[in-house]
Specification:
The protein is 50% helix and 17% strand. It has 269 residues and is an alpha+beta fold. The strands form two sheets. Strands 1, 2, 3, 4, 5 and 8 form a six-stranded antiparallel sheet that branches. A two-stranded antiparallel sheet has the order 6-7. A hairpin with a 2-residue loop joins β6 and β7. The chain is globular.
């Protein structure tokens, strides 16, 4: 899978939906194509570039995209979602008000420079309203990974065993023959009717469980290729407190908040 980071923003109602509700709807639509989504809190920020407009509601989202879906295909899907929530690119003012704006900030480790698609996003480092929520998500992922590693010694052992076996069995090292023999023996006993089958089956199950869980975390860990330290440094250089970025809805409260708002049929704007 490919780790993807998106920046979302809204400062204009669409139909009866407020900007916060539009962001919630966008996340729901994005969840249909992205896996293991992590969202930031919602931040109210002063408009940049064209300052004579309403404040924006901004947040960041990180998720995993299936292999085979390219950045261009993701961009096309994003444009569909934006249009569904009222954005008309042909009529809007550049950097002006919009009901929904979704930018691809990072797409794995890819670097793309095309007229309508630049990855990493070319203005990322000048935008505290993207850097702040994105850093929040990356810090949260790091904390989760540390907690998981601390709680699961088996996962660490399985990770090491899986890595060593894979490297030596497939490589040209002196241990390749022994590693291949170990793989073959485990497979034979796990699937056969030998006295060792129960133990082998248990070993395979444990390794499979922990290795799979770790692989999912490891893929998500690839999100750190986005350069968390670099993002932190860029934000520090901007002076976060001077950029008009204010947290208004915590990440853990956002989806329950949106659900409640939609059920009650209320809109704040």
């Amino acid at each position: 899978m490919t780790p993807v980071a998106l920046g979302l923003g809204s400062n204009k109602k669409f139909s009866c939906l407020s900007p916060e509700e539009i962001l919630g709807g966008a996340i729901f639509e994005l969840s249909k194509i992205l896996h293991n989504i992590e969202i930031s809190s919602v931040y109210r920020t002063k408009a940049m570039y064209v300052v004579d407009q309403e404040d924006f509601y901004n947040m960041a989202l990180v998720g995993l995209l299936d292999d085979g879906i390219c950045a261009r295909a993701l961009l096309e899907k994003i444009h569909e979602i934006e249009a569904a929530f009222g954005r008309d690119r042909e009529k809007e003012i550049r950097f002006g008000p919009r009901s929904l704006d979704i930018d691809i900030e990072f797409f794995g480790r890819q670097k793309i420079l095309e007229p309508d698609l630049q990855i990493p996003h070319q203005r990322l480092k000048e935008r505290a309203f993207v850097l702040t929520p994105l850093l929040e998500v990356l810090n949260g992922l790091e904390s989760k990974e540390a907690a998981q590693n601390a709680q699961s010694g088996d996962a660490q052992a399985a990770r090491a065993a899986n890595q060593i076996t894979s490297v030596h069995a497939n490589g040209g090292t002196p241990y390749a023959q022994a590693a291949r023999a170990a793989v073959q023996a485990t497979s034979t006993h796990a699937n056969g009717g030998t006295p060792y089958a129960p133990a082998s089956k248990a070993a395979v199950q444990i390794i499979s469980t922990h290795a799979t869980a770790w692989n999912a975390d490891n893929i998500k860990g690839e999100i750190f290729c986005f350069g968390r330290d670099e993002i932190s440094d860029a934000l520090f250089s901007l002076g976060e407190k001077d950029c008009g970025v204010e947290k208004i809805i915590r990440a853990q409260d956002f989806l329950p908040f949106i659900k409640s708002r939609l059920q009650d049929g209320r809109s704040s704007r």
